[in-house]
Amino acid sequence: MRNGKSIKLISVICAILIFTLLCVLVFQLVRISTLKNREDELASTLAALEEQVDDYNAENEYMKSYEYLEDYAREVLGWGKENEVNFD
What we know:
Blueprint: H1 2-63, H2 66-75
């Protein structure tokens, strides 16, 4: 009689333990999925930011060039090259 109760008790404990472990596994899988989605979002944001940095660097290089000075003088100050005729 005592042996039957201990087997029943061990079976109940094992069932509860398996159920608990399955719940933990499901929650961890959901968390992994959420983290992977977040990682994908951050990777796309990083790519967009890197593209923005490249654009700013290109614009910065242009602003350091002599060509920018010519364009600025022509467009903002109304200066032109010698013998250049503007039709506005």
